[in-house]
Amino acid sequence: MTYRSCLEAFDDGVRSRLNYPLHMGLYKLSESYRRIQHSRDGVVRIAEVVNGKSSPFSLRSCTNEDKAYWLRDLPTNVAFRVGYEIVPALRALEFDGVLKSQSEAAALLVESAIPPHLVKWDYLRDSFKNKISSEYASMRNGQSNVLLVVDDALSLIEMAVKLLPSNIQNGI
To answer: 68-106: buried (b, 16+ CB within 10 Å) or exposed (e) per residue?
Structure first.
């Protein structure tokens, strides 16, 4: 689905999860975190292709022909994933033996911190969503607004995970 904003994507993720509650959290948290890391790897590969350091055949998350669409949609995909997988998985950790107070604290940390992050992600996305050449130019200069979005999401998740017991931290 195409979203107009990261907030819309996040809210849709939250609403969609209501129909499919999680009964275990660790596997979903780990899986989603790895998917976002995989997306980060995809952005890095695209930057290498744009800079001529790698062949277009090195791309895994997209093809050379659709990399612009993949990059454009990545901020909203990450926002959806945080709403649909990360926050619910943090809450569902109570079914994995985490104290409800700890799992709830981690979920609330993300929920309370997410609004300004979504605004930031939209701001970064606005810089390239209509003209991907600006993102490619940034990549040629060693920067990437898409990478900033992904890294920010990973940081937010890592901040929440630090509130959890070490066995859960190590499982992610």
So the answer is: bebbbbbbbbbbbbbbbbbbbbbbbbbebebeeebbbeb
